[in-house]
Amino acid sequence: MKRIAILTSGGDAPGMNAATRAVVRKAIYEGLEVYGINYGFLGLVNGDIRKLELGSVGDLLHRGGTFLYSARYPEFATEEGQLKGIEQLKKHQIDGLVVIGGDGSYHGAEALTKRGFPTIGIPGTIDNDISGTDFTIGFDTALNTVLDALDKIRDTATSHERTFIIEVMGRDAGDIALWSGLAGGAEAIIVPEESFNMDDVVDRLNKGRERGKKHSIIVVAEGVMSGNDFAKQLAEYGDYHARVTVLGHVQRGGSPTAFDRVLASRLGARSVELLLENRGGLAVGIRENRIVENDISEILKEKHTLDQKLFDLASILSI
Ligand code: F6P
């Protein structure tokens, strides 16, 4: 292994830059050359590849987004796309690849490894929906962004004695909703992994009202339904005319938290070690504060699950 490359793919996440920096610096420290591929798998197929030096990743650790740019490129699922990608890697004499991204990016990494090109996956997505790791890079930052918004909405909700619905991202996963709802003391947390009953939600709000609560906040994960649809249903069930806030892409930006920077640094460095050992087809992750690696195909087969105990705790504490 003499020359490795790195790309970021799918939705960006705060901390992707910190992970890229770690890969570049650790690789150079180990005597490797590193190449950056712009725009994820799209850039790989198009040969949008440049050499990275120690200085290329300077002043990057604290920046959100990804300086390698990102793209969603479903065409990489085709044989044609994958063969073109491998052709580019060979042309640039690259021996190993690190892919930072979510589920779709892992499929690309798996396909390249199956075709004989060692590739490592680093979990980078705000959704926290990748198996084999307790946390994905970007989740903690997104969570704190949501929490900041939730705290601010609580101020105005109290002043006007209003009910607020906050729609958060997460695709099919409810982690952002659950963790922000628990941290922000939401009255109800609606996630795709748990069924809900609108009568129960209304009952909960009514009880709060009866004991003098000045506001109610409901966090709805986008994977269940939109915040606006939830508000319409809620109005049909009870006397609640909720205001809706859709946080949207604000959740994807911003400077990564210390947690995300440290996680990204650890995972980036471990990826390089694995490539140095000539091991591909692995996804790195963190489990009980230890850096681990798992077979990427196994990770893709496992469905991410919500922390049931945390969900139960959130509903106990919000009565
Ligand atoms: O996967 C990250 C994510 O932000 C999801 O939470 C969301 O559903 C999706 O990406 C939005 O995708 P896009 O930025 O392409 O609209």
What is the structure about, briefly put?
The protein is α/β, with parallel strands linked by helices. The chain contains eleven helices and eleven strands. Strands 3-2-1-4-5-10-11 form a seven-stranded mixed β-sheet, sandwiched between helices. A four-stranded parallel β-sheet has the order 7-8-6-9, sandwiched between helices.
Describe this protein's structure.
The chain is α/β, with parallel strands linked by helices. It has two domains: 3-138 and 256-300, 3-Layer(aba) Sandwich (Rossmann fold), CATH 3.40.50.450; 139-253, 3-Layer(aba) Sandwich (Rossmann fold). 43% of the residues lie in helices and 18% in strands. The chain is built from eleven helices and eleven strands. The longest helix is centred in the middle third of the chain and has 22 residues, at 139-160. The model has no long low-confidence stretch (mean pLDDT 97). Bound molecules: 6-O-phosphono-beta-D-fructofuranose. The site of 6-O-phosphono-beta-D-fructofuranose (F6P) has 11 residues, from loops.
